[in-house]
Structures are given as C-alpha cells and as structure tokens.
Amino acid sequence: MAITVDGLDxxxxxxxxxxxxxxxxxxxxxxxxxxADATDDHQWIHTDPARAADGPFGAPIAxxxxxxxxFIPLFTGLLDVRGVTTKVNYGLDKVRFPAPVKAGSxxxxxxxxxxxxxxxxxxxxxxxxxxxxxxxTKPACVLRSLSRFHV
Length: 151
What we know:
Blueprint: E1 3-6, H1 7-14, E2 18-21, E3 25-27, H2 29-39, H3 44-47, H4 49-53, H5 64-69, H6 71-76, E4 79-82, E5 86-96, E6 105-119, E7 122-133, E8 141-150
Parallel strand pairs: 1-4
Antiparallel strand pairs: 2-6, 3-6, 5-8, 6-7, 7-8
C-alpha cells in the first residue's frame, strides 16, 4: 500500500524514510519479448529459450534495462504525492545489475527516500532502490533515482 503525502512539505517530512516494498510483479518471457521488440535488442540470451537453456544462466534472462524500466511502476505503488502539477523522471545517479532476472521470475522494489532538495518551482528527490528477485539473495538491480515534483 502506497504512502500518500500532500505536496512538497509532505515529501520533505519523509526525507530519510524507508518507503517499504512494492507488490511482486512477474517478468514473463512475453514481457521480455515485448521489450526486445520495443528496443530492437533480440539477443538470444533474452529471446531464444531453447538456446538460452544451454547458456550461462540456464534460462532466458530479462534485459537489464527492462528490469530498470520497471522501477517506475514499482515505485508508484510505494509513494503517492498529491497536490503537485508535474512529476518528472530527472535521471539516475548509479545503477548496477548484480544478478540476472530469469524469465518466469518475480521482482519487487524496496526503496528509501534518501533526500529531498529544493529546486526552482519544486523539489528533487533521490530514491535508493533495490529490485529484489523472489528467492534470490542477490538483487537484480541497485539504483539511485532522481525525480522532480513541481507545484
């Protein structure tokens, strides 16, 4: 269940807080194939289950950037900011992919609101996120995401 805050002051009060963990989401072969089509990246390790079964991971794996792209929908399940006019993805400070996400896995996001800084017309937040793989001790992705909220 998402934490709901009102406006920029609500965000400021949350600085340094754990936001919790999102619901699990499925990373299916169909999702991987759709991402491959969208990005024109059809490397066999992602899209050829038969060949990937004999590859280094024993199964097809999600593109790292697919895993990263799921940060936004997972994050929106953790924090709802009301009373702002614009929410903008500002960028990333650091991204790592410690473990592959095999087709058929489930992932979720654990996040912390690391900081809230004033910028002209709003605030910039830094979120430290860890995308976890169900049943794995190593995360799929560790990142710091930057977003801006304007009034």
